[in-house]
Write a structure and sequence with these properties.
Elements (H helix, E strand, L loop, with lengths): L6 E3 L6 E3 H32 L8 H34 L8 H23 L17 H30 L9 H31 L8 H35 L6 H14 L16 H36 L8 H4 L6 H25 L1 H7 L4 H30 L6 H27 L22 H34 L22 H4 L11 H28 L4
Antiparallel strand pairs: 1-2
Length: 568
C-alpha cells in the first residue's frame, strides 16, 4: 500500500483523501468549468440568434457557434466533470489510493488535447457540422481526431476508476458493499465503456474518410452507430447526476437511501435499457424494422423510465426520512420547508431533481412515443427536451456538488456566499424557461438547427403563428438569465479556488443549516446502509403530483399536436 503520508483527512467530513486523486480531481473539475464557460457563451449567441427580433449572428457564425456549443457543453464540460466524479466516488469515498495516477494524467492530457484540437477545427470555420456531424457533411480531419483522442482519454479514466475499486477491495479500505454513490458512478463508467466503443466504431472510419483513405461513409450506418454513442453519452450523465443527488443528500443532511437494493436495481435498469432510448432519433429511418422500433419505444424505454422514477421517489424520500429523523415532523411538508435552501449544494440538487423529472423526463417519454415523435422530432422541441435533462438535470447537479468539492478537495472556503445562494435559482429558472419555450415553439412546428426560423430567403416562405415568435423571444430572455446564473457560478468557483480562505475544521456551510441532530456527513455517503422504515407522506404527495402531471401532459399532447400543426 502507498505510504500514509500520501493521504490527508478532511477535518469537516472525516473523509480520507488520497493526494494524487485530489490533484487529478482538481485538474479535471477546473478544466470542466472552463469549457462550461466557453460553451455557455456560444450557447447564448445561438439563443440570441434564434430570437427573430435580435438575430445576432450571421449564418456562418450561427452554425459555428451551434457546433461549438454542443461539443463544449454536451461533451467536454460534462465528461471532464464526470471523470472528477469517478475519482471522487472511488478513491475519496472508499478511502483508497487511486490506481495509476500517472495514467490519470495521461488521460487528462489526451482529453484536453482532443478538446482543444476539436475546438480549433470548429473555430477555423470549416467544421461547422454541428454536434451530430452527419455525413455527407465533412469536417476537418483534426475535428474527428480530437474527438477520438478525447474519447480515448475518457476510456483510460474509466479503467483507472475500475482499477481503484479493485485496489480498495484488496486493501480493505471499506466494509461490506461499496457505497450507493460509488455504485452509481460504476453504472456510469460501465455505460461509458460501450458508449466510447460505439464512438470508436464510427469516428475512426469517419476520420479516415476525412483524410481520403475511405471514399464513402454510409449516412444511415453512421447515424445508427453514432446514436449508440451520442444518446448513450447522455445516459452516462443520468447515472452520474443521480449518484450526485444521493451524494449531496448524504453530505448535507445525512440522508441514507430508503433501500439500497431498490436504488441499486434502478441503476441496473439504466445499464440494461436506458441506452436504447436512442431509438427515438431513428424512428423515421427506413433501414430499421418496425419490430425493433416498437420494442424500443413501447417496452425498453419504459423499463429505463422505471429506473428514473424509482430514483425520483427514493431521493426525496431519503431526504424526508432524514429530516423527520432530525425532528421536522410537523405536517406533510415541514421537512421540505425546513430543508437547507440557503445551501446552494442542496437547492441546486433539489432543483435538478425536480426539473429533470417534470421537464426533461416527462417530455422525453412523450417524445419517445413513435406517433408523436414523427410530428415533433425535427422541431426545436428536441433541444428543449434535452436542455431539461442535460442542463437542468446534469449541469445543475454538477454545479451543486461543486459547492461541496471546493471546500473538500480544493480546501478553500466559498466566496461571495450570497451570490452562491442565489446562483442555482438564477440558472435553474433560466434553463427551465429555455426548455419550456423551446418545447412550446416545437409544438408549433419551429424547426431545429436553423439560423432563420422565418425562412425569409426561401422560395416558399412560411409564417409561423405569432405565439411561436413570442416563445422564441422568451427563450432568448431565458438564455440570458441562464447565462447570468452560469457566469455567477464560474465567478464564485474560480474566485473561491484562487482566493478563498483555507478551510479548517468548520462545517462547509457553518451558518446556513444546523439540524437538531447532526449526522457526520462522511458516514452516509461513504458507507453501505439503508434508512429503515419511515412514514413519508410528503414524498407520496410529490410523487402523486408528478404522476398527475405526467398523465395529463401525455394525453394532452395527442390532441394538441393533432390540431395545431399544419401537417397533421
Amino acid at each position: 500500500m502507498a505510504q500514509t503520508d500520501t493521504f490527508r483527512t478532511c477535518p469537516a467530513t472525516g473523509l480520507k483523501v488520497h493526494l494524487s486523486a485530489e490533484r487529478l480531481i482538481k485538474a479535471n473539475a477546473f478544466i470542466a468549468i472552463v469549457f462550461l464557460a466557453v460553451g455557455g457563451l456560444f450557447g447564448l449567441g445561438v439563443a440570441l440568434t434564434r430570437w427573430p427580433s435580435v438575430h445576432l449572428l450571421p449564418a456562418e457564425w450561427f452554425y459555428l457557434a451551434l457546433t461549438a456549443h454542443g461539443l463544449d457543453v454536451l461533451l467536454v464540460w460534462i465528461i471532464f466533470f464526470e471523470v472528477a466524479v469517478l475519482y471522487f466516488a472511488s478513491a475519496i469515498l472508499l478511502g483508497s489510493r487511486l490506481a495509476t495516477p500517472k495514467l490519470g494524467w495521461l488521460a487528462f492530457a489526451l482529453m484536453l488535447i482532443g478538446a482543444v484540437m476539436t475546438n480549433v477545427a470548429v473555430l477555423q470555420g470549416s467544421s461547422s457540422v454541428m454536434f451530430t456531424s452527419y455525413p455527407p457533411m465533412q469536417a476537418e480531419p483534426h475535428f474527428y481526431l480530437g474527438l477520438i483522442l478525447f474519447a480515448v482519454g475518457a476510456l483510460v479514466a474509466c479503467f483507472i476508476f475500475f482499477g481503484t475499486l479493485v485496489i480498495a477491495k484488496e486493501e480493505n479500505t471499506y466494509e461490506g458493499s461499496i457505497p450507493l454513490v460509488t455504485f452509481g458512478a460504476l453504472t456510469a463508467a460501465i455505460i461509458a465503456v460501450f458508449t466510447i466503443a460505439s464512438g470508436a466504431i464510427i469516428l475512426i472510419p469517419t476520420f479516415l474518410w476525412s483524410i481520403g483513405l475511405i471514399s464513402y461513409i454510409d449516412p444511415l450506418m453512421y447515424k445508427l452507430i453514432w446514436w449508440g454513442m451520442g444518446h448513450s453519452s447522455q445516459q452516462i450523465n443520468v447515472s452520474a447526476h443521480v449518484a450526485v443527488w444521493y451524494a449531496i443528500a448524504a453530505m448535507v443532511i445525512g440522508a441514507r437511501p430508503l433501500s439500497e437494493k431498490v436504488s441499486r436495481t434502478a441503476f441496473l435498469l439504466y445499464i440494461l435499457f436506458l441506452q436504447l432510448a436512442s431509438a427515438h432519433h431513428l424512428l423515421v429511418e427506413p433501414g430499421l424494422s418496425s419490430e425493433w422500433k416498437i420494442f424500443n419505444t413501447s417496452y425498453a424505454m419504459y423499463l429505463a423510465v422505471l429506473g428514473s422514477m424509482i430514483h425520483g421517489l427514493t431521493v426525496p424520500g431519503s431526504i424526508e426520512a432524514a429530516q423527520r429523523r432530525h425532528g421536522y415532523n410537523k405536517g406533510i411538508f415541514q421537512w421540505l420547508r425546513k430543508a437547507p435552501w440557503g445551501n446552494p449544494a442542496f437547492s441546486g440538487m433539489f432543483l435538478s431533481l425536480v426539473m429533470f423529472g417534470f421537464i426533461g423526463g416527462i417530455s422525453g417519454v412523450v417524445m419517445g412515443v413513435e406517433q408523436i415523435n414523427l410530428i415533433i422530432h425535427n422541431t426545436i422541441y428536441v433541444p428543449g427536451h434535452f436542455h431539461g435533462t442535460v442542463v437542468a438535470g446534469t449541469t445543475l447537479a454538477f454545479m451543486a456538488i461543486t459547492y461541496l468539492l471546493v471546500p473538500l478537495i480544493f480546501q478553500r472556503q466559498i466566496m461571495f456566499r450570497k451570490l452562491a445562494q442565489w446562483q442555482p435559482y438564477l440558472f435553474g429558472i433560466g434553463v427551465a424557461g429555455i426548455s419550456f419555450f423551446m418545447m412550446g415553439a416545437g409544438t408549433l412546428g419551429v424547426a431545429r438547427r436553423h439560423w432563420d426560423i422565418t425562412f425569409s430567403d426561401a422560395v416558399f416562405s412560411f409564417d409561423y403563428p405569432a405565439a411561436a415568435h413570442l416563445m422564441m423571444a422568451l427563450n432568448g430572455i431565458s438564455a440570458v438569465l441562464a447565462a447570468v446564473g452560469g457566469l455567477v457560478f464560474v465567478i464564485v468557483v474560480v474566485a473561491s479556488v484562487l482566493f478563498g480562505k483555507r478551510t479548517g475544521d468548520e462545517p462547509i456551510w457553518p451558518t446556513l443549516y444546523t439540524p437538531p441532530v447532526r449526522t457526520p456527513s462522511a458516514v452516509p455517503v461513504a458507507s453501505y446502509g439503508s434508512a429503515g422504515t419511515f412514514a413519508l407522506p410528503g414524498t407520496a404527495v410529490l410523487v402523486l403530483i408528478f404522476f398527475t402531471v405526467f398523465v395529463l401532459y401525455y394525453f394532452v399532447n395527442w390532441k394538441y399536436l393533432s390540431e395545431v400543426w399544419l401537417l397533421s
